[in-house]
Specification:
Elements lengths: L4 E7 L3 E8 L4 E9 L7 E6 L4 E6 L5 H14 L9 E8 L10 E2 L2 H9 L8 H14 L5 E5 L9 H4 L5 H6 L9 H14 L8 E7 L3 E7 L2 E5 L21 H8 L5 H10 L2 H6 L4 H9 L3 H25 L4 E5 H6 L1 H8 L11 H5 L6 E2 L8 E4 L4 H13 L7
Parallel strand pairs: 1-6, 6-8, 9-12, 12-14
Antiparallel strand pairs: 1-2, 2-3, 3-4, 4-5, 7-8, 9-10, 10-11, 13-14
Helix pairs in contact: 1-3, 6-15, 10-11, 11-13
Length: 405
């Protein structure tokens, strides 16, 4: 028997998301979430996708080790336990791989040490990711654990795109460069867009717009990222739900010198009290559009700023790529906000893209073209699937070595 299942874990600071997939047909067997880890009000929600049955339990979950044991127990009740011989590997989302990891890595002590060394670049994420890996290794030390990095897809950027124009020695000493994030989403969506066009990924140039509460754009030439909007951290680039995106660095100095704000206060301002929230008090695009329709000027300005920044990146990536075959919208806003897609492309008809109003307004869960027939540049809505991408990369790395016949 060949082991074909992959358990995907996404460990946050106080949460653990998981999906169990069968890589024979990429089907999902189970999915769930443990939230509020470390609190008395912890909750585990577990769904068996083959039957649709959902179970919820509440009560204290002390730490990630306890959370994963609880998950293993729920999976075991459905005959999908971590002790199953059909489980080939556990794939872990790791936010920051720096310049060290250009592809997934089977976790060993050296890999763990390098992820630990990168903690200063992702102090909120990498420690939680490490906790998940260590916990899983303790439960199944015999099973391959694979780290899949958000930054890896963007390591193909040329130095001209990845380097900031600051003193090279300083940049190298403190590992300051543009890394990019949402890499598993950009990889998956760019490949699915090529499939939607009936072409090979290596023949297609795509601008991918991952628009959720966090948002990023990428320029993908022939399946390889050549530029992306996020930088050293996920703060750079597009206007986001609570993050400012691009900002004159002197604003930070001004706030410190004139406003007397500490670095922590500025960090909180730019990451949690900026973006759409800072502009109009809402970070939910549905609520913002409702307010726009009712004539709310603050919401209108926030929407216009959001779209203006988005258009700037689309235009910039046209220049970077030279030829664009498709623009792909993905993630929560990109997949569901027709008004955002329409506004982002409006006025760019001279460059080739256009949106068909009826196709754009139609809702659906499948990848689809929303540009009119004959448009020189296709506009697509492509639902992202980061868990499937992590599972696919994990299984590609270890699956062939797990023939248990």
């Amino acid at each position: 028997m060949t082991a074909t299942r992959v358990l995907v874990l996404n460990s946050g600071s106080s949460s653990l998301k998981y999906q169990l997939l069968d890589m024979r047909d990429s089907s999902r067997l189970a999915t769930g979430l443990v939230e509020r880890i470390g609190e008395r009000t912890s909750r585990l929600k577990h769904t068996v996708l083959t039957t649709g049955a959902t179970r919820e339990t509440t009560g204290p979950v002390a730490d990630h080790a306890a959370a994963l044991k609880a998950v293993a127990g729920e999976l075991g009740r459905d005959g999908l336990g971590l002790d199953s011989p059909e489980l080939a590997a556990i794939g872990h989302r790791v936010v920051h791989g720096g310049s060290s990891f250009t592809e997934p890595a089977v976790v060993d002590d050296a890999v763990l040490a390098e992820i630990e060394r990168l903690v200063p670049l992702a102090p909120l994420h990498n420690p939680a990711n490490l906790t998940g890996i260590r916990t899983a290794r303790a439960l199944r030390p015999d099973l391959p654990q694979v780290a899949v990095f958000d930054t890896a897809f963007h390591t193909t950027m040329p130095e001209s795109a990845a380097r900031y124009a600051i003193d090279v020695r300083t940049a190298d000493e403190y590992r300051i460069r543009r890394y990019g994030f949402h890499g598993t989403s950009h990889a998956y969506v760019s490949r699915q867009t090529a499939k939607l066009l009936g072409r090979a990924p290596e023949d297609v140039n795509v601008i991918v717009l991952h628009l959720g509460n966090g948002a990023s754009a990428s320029a993908v030439r022939g399946g390889h990222c050549v530029d992306t909007s996020m930088g050293l951290t996920p703060l750079e680039g597009l206007v986001m739900g609570t993050r400012s995106g691009d900002l004159d660095p002197a604003v930070i100095l001004h706030l410190a010198r004139v406003g007397g704000m500490s670095t922590d206060e500025i960090d909180t301002l730019l990451n949690k009290r900026s973006g759409l929230t800072g502009l109009c008090g809402d970070n939910d695009m549905r609520e913002i559009r409702r307010r726009v329709d009712e004539g709310d000027e603050r919401a209108r300005l926030a929407f216009d700023i959001y779209i203006h920044r988005l258009k700037k990146y689309i235009g910039a990536y046209y220049a970077v790529l030279g030829r664009v075959d498709a623009i792909a919208f993905t993630a929560g806003v990109g997949e569901n906000a027709a008004a955002v897609r329409e506004a982002a492309v409006a006025g760019l008809e001279g460059l080739g893209p256009a949106v068909d109003a009826d196709l754009n307004a139609a809702r659906g869960d499948e990848a689809r073209i929303i540009s009119p027939e004959g448009a020189r540049v296709a506009v697509a809505v492509v639902p992202t699937d980061e868990e499937l991408e992590i599972a696919t990369q994990t299984y590609a790395l270890v699956g062939a070595s797990h023939d248990l016949t």
